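Notes from the 1:1 (GR / supervisor)

We went over the backlog. Supervisor wanted to see one worked example end to end before approving the batch request, so GR pasted a single chain during the call. The sequence is below; no edits were made to it. Supervisor asked that the structure be written out right there so they could see what the output format looks like.
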Amino acid sequence: MIGEVTTGHPRGLHSRRHVRSRSLQVVLAFGAVAAVLAIAVVVVPLLRPPGPRPLFQLPVACGETWQLGTYPGHDDYDVDLFPTEGEAWGRPVLASYAGTVTEAGINGSLGGRTPDNPDGPRGRGGGYWVKIDHGGRWETQYLHLLEPPLVRVGQRVDGGEQIGRVGSTGNSGAPHLHYEQRRGWQKVETYFDGSPSGITHDDTEYTVTRTSNNCASGQP
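Structure output shown during the call:
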């Protein structure tokens, strides 16, 4: 008599494979949910409208008068700052408003312009630079610093706190501070102590003088 013949895999093995398959599906589902949440954490704040403009101050010492200027080819809204008195090299660069440092290092390449060799080779980009997030999707940028920034990424800074010194690193022809204010992804006209700078385009050369009211640290 021929005994009963079975085909296929044993029932226990099939059950274990089914459990493993279900477990894998659960893990993949949780992974997908986690990925979506992670993307939402990054993307959703960027889709929100910017908050009100912070009361930005000139990024230089209290009471000093500086020339703000632009020129053809400089790019809309970009501001170059030069002191109206004294040497530019090494002057303190201050945070325009309280915030968190998001960049502090080298943008492009440094070149070789220093106080001892002011006509040295130019570099590329912004040289030593700092970028600060002020909340509400507002940022400021500070370029062509003399030396490595005095702050680090992730550091919280107060308005009026020194973040570097004026130099001529990167693509710079003379010691000065290149400065920008950004709302969301876009550069906007710079405001200082609540007043517009008047620098909105680079069609023609334009200069204006302003006196700094960046006189107290610890702005909210």
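Supervisor's comment: The first strand starts at residue 65 and ends at 70.
Batch request approved.
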